[in-house]
Specification:
- This protein is of the alpha/beta class.
- The chain folds into 2 domains: 234 residues, BirA Bifunctional Protein, domain 2; 185 residues.
- Helix content is 42%, strand content 16%.
- It contains 16 helices and 11 strands.
- Strands 1, 2, 3, 4, 5, 6, 7, 8 and 9 form a 9-stranded mixed β-sheet that branches. It has a two-stranded parallel sheet with strand order 10-11.
- α4 links the parallel β4 and β5.
- The longest helix has 35 residues.
- The protein is globular, with a radius of gyration of 24 Å.
- It starts with a helix and ends with a helix.
- The structure holds adenosine-5'-triphosphate and magnesium ion (3 copies).
- One magnesium ion binds next to β8.
Length: 474
C-alpha cells in the first residue's frame, strides 16, 4: 500500500476507534505531574494515573499517537536505521478491560487485513516470554501463526522495579536479505537479536503482576494492556525506505540541509549521511521540546536541548555549513507534522528564535573549540595515547561550550576515550571555587547578577502563547 505517514497514523487510530477505543491527544513531552520522568518516553508514561487506579478513565480503552523523547538513544541516532530522539509511539491501552486475546488478535488484524495495513503475514515474526504459554498459544491457535515465526526470548518481560509489570510480545518485520548485517548462522540472527533484517515495530505488554517492594510478583486484580508501535519504523516499511530517514517524515528536512550545505549530497558518503540524519532527527526533537515549554539551559531538560542543538551544529560543520542554519528547519518540522500537531507550526517563529539564539551562542566558540579538540586528538595520536585528557575535555566544556558527551563521541570516532574521571574532578574543583566565591560575595553583601543568575528551569506552560521575553533577552 502507498500511504503517507499522516495516513498511517490516522489508520492506526481509526482501527482502534473501531474497536471501541477513545482517541486521546498526545500529551506534552514535558511531564507535568510526574517528577520521576525527564521526558515522556512512551505512550504508557502518560497512562500511569489510569494504571495505578488514581484516576478512572471514562472509557477503559484508549488509543493515541504519543510524541516521545528517549535520551538513551541519542548516540544511536544517525548510526542505526531505526532510532530517534523524538519519535511517535502509536499505542492502544486497556485499563483493566480487554487482555491478551484481544490485544494479540487485533494487532494481527490491523497489520495484515487488506482494509488496514495489508502487510504480508510471511514477513511478520513475533517474540514471546518463555513462561508466557498463554500468549504463545494465542499466536499459534487463534492467529494461526506458524511456530517457525515465534521466538521465545528471555528479555520479554516489562519491569520497571516496583509497580505493574508483566511479559510482553514483540512484533518484527522481516526486511529481507538486503538488510542482513550478520551472517545467517550468527546466533544473533533472529527476530529480537542484533540482525537489522528484523525490524522491531511493535511491543505489546501484558501488565498482569504487581512487582512488590519485597521483590515478589502478585497477580493484579485488573490486568492492563499497553502497546507501543514506532510510527517512523512502520512508515519506513510502507515507503520501502532503507532507514526511517528516507520517508516523508524526514526527507524534506534532509533536502533543506542539503541546500544549505556545501554541495554535499545525501546518499554520497556514509559519514555525511550520518550528519544529515542527526540534523533531521535532532531538529525535530528540539522543535517539539521547545514547543512544549522546555528551553535550552545547563541542566535537566534544558541541557538535553542544548546538547541536541550542539550535536546537530557540529554535524552541520561536517556538511560545510558555517552559519546558524538549524533554525531554518523549524518551520519545515511544523509543516511535516501539521496534520496531527498544528501547534508546532503555530509556534514556529518563537521556536526558531530560541534555536537561532542557541546556535549563535555556540557558533561563537565552536571554531576555536574544534581547533583545540583536533589539535589534542592529533597530539594524542602522535604520542600513541588512547586517552584524551579530562582537563582538555573540561576546558572544551567550560570555555567552548562542548558538552562532555560531544567530546567523547568525537574522540571515539578517532578511537580515543576521554578521561572522564579527570573531567569530573575538574568539574568538582570548579564548583568548589564557585561556592567559595559565592559565600565571599554574600559576606560582602554584594548582589552580583552574574552570581545569582542561575539557569532557567523549564516548566510546562501549555500551548498558550509562551511568554518568555526574559529568556529571549538572556
Ligand atoms: P529497540 O530494541 O529497537 O531499541 P525498544 O525495545 O527499546 O526498541 P520499546 O521500549 O519496546 O522499544 O518501545 C516500543 C516501540 O517504540 C518499539 O517497538 C519501536 O517501534 C518504538 N521505538 C522505541 N525506541 C525508539 C526510538 N528511539 N526511535 C524510534 N522508535 C522507537
Ligand atoms: Mg531501545
Ligand atoms: Mg527492543
Ligand atoms: Mg521493545
Amino acid at each position: 500500500k502507498q500511504l503517507s505517514s499522516a495516513q498511517i497514523r490516522q489508520m492506526y487510530l481509526d482501527f482502534f476507534k473501531s474497536k471501541g477505543h477513545e482517541v486521546m491527544q498526545s500529551a506534552p513531552l514535558v511531564p507535568h505531574d510526574d517528577p520521576t520522568l525527564l521526558w515522556i518516553n512512551s505512550g504508557v508514561a502518560t497512562m500511569k494515573k489510569f494504571f495505578d487506579g488514581s484516576v478512572v478513565p471514562k472509557n477503559p480503552r484508549i488509543t493515541s499517537s504519543q510524541k516521545s523523547i528517549r535520551t538513551n538513544d541519542i548516540e544511536n541516532v544517525g548510526h542505526t536505521a531505526r532510532h530517534h530522539t523524538l519519535f511517535e509511539m502509536l499505542g492502544n491501552f486497556s485499563v483493566g478491560d480487554y487482555f491478551k486475546e484481544e490485544a494479540i488478535t487485533w494487532a494481527w488484524e490491523l497489520l495484515t487485513s487488506p482494509e488496514w495495513f495489508d502487510m504480508d503475514p510471511e514477513k511478520l515474526y513475533v517474540t514471546v516470554y518463555p513462561k508466557d504459554t498463554q500468549a504463545k498459544k494465542i499466536w499459534l491457535e487463534e492467529v494461526k501463526l506458524p511456530e517457525s515465526h515465534i521466538f521465545e526470548v528471555e528479555d520479554n518481560f516489562w519491569d520497571i522495579g516496583e509497580g505493574p509489570s508483566g511479559p510482553d510480545s514483540e512484533i518484527f518485520y522481516d526486511r529481507g536479505q538486503a538488510f542482513n548485517n550478520l551472517a545467517e548462522d550468527d546466533p544473533e540472527s533472529y527476530p529480537g537479536g542484533e540482525n537489522e533484517r528484523y525490524l522491531e515495530i511493535w511491543n505489546i505488554v501484558f501488565s498482569e503482576f504487581n512487582h512488590k517492594p519485597d521483590g515478589t510478583y502478585e497477580p493484579l486484580p485488573h490486568k492492563n494492556i499497553d502497546t507501543g508501535m514506532g510510527l517512523e519504523r512502520v512508515v519506513s516499511v510502507f515507503q520501502n525506505a532503507r532507514t526511517n530517514f528516507e520517508t516523508d517524515l524526514f526527507m524534506p528536512l534532509i533536502k533543506k540541509a542539503q541546500e544549505l550545505g556545501n554541495g554535499v549530497v545525501y546518499g554520497d558518503e556514509a559519514a555525511t549521511d550520518v550528519s544529515f540524519k542527526v540534523i533531521a532527527d535532532h531538529i525535530r526533537a528540539v522543535t517539539f521540546a521547545i514547543g512544549d515549554g522546555a528551553l535550552p539551559s545547563n541542566e535537566g531538560r534544558g541541557y538535553v536541548i542544548r546538547r541536541l542543538i550542539r550535536r546537530a551544529v557540529m554535524h552541520g560543520q561536517n556538511l560545510g555549513i558555517q552559519d546558524a542554519f538549524l533554525y531554518k528547519l523549524v518551520a519545515i518540522v511544523g509543516q511535516i507534522m501539521q496534520s496531527h500537531y498544528p501547534e508546532v507550526l503555530e509556534q514556529a517563529e518563537f521556536i526558531a528564535k530560541v534555536v537561532r539564539m542557541e546556535e549563535d551562542r555556540f557558533n561563537e566558540t565552536l571554531k576555536d573549540g574544534l581547533q583545540l579538540l583536533n589539535e589534542m586528538i592529533a597530539q594524542a595520536k602522535k604520542n600513541k595515547a588512547s586517552k584524551l585528557s579530562g582537563k582538555i575535555a573540561f576546558k572544551l566544556y567550560d570555555t567552548y561550550g562542548f558538552p562532555l558527551e560531544l567530546t567523547t563521541e568525537y574522540a571515539k570516532e578517532q578511537d580515543l576515550v576521554v578521561d572522564e574521571a579527570e573531567f569530573e574532578d575538574q568539574m568538582k574543583q570548579q564548583k568548589e571555587r564557585a561556592r567559595a566565591a559565592r559565600s565571599n560575595a554574600k559576606s560582602m553583601g554584594v548582589q552580583n547578577a552574574l552570581l545569582t543568575d542561575i539557569k532557567t528551569e523549564s516548566k510546562y506552560v501549555g500551548y498558550e502563547k509562551l511568554v518568555t521575553n526574559a529568556v529571549l533577552k538572556d
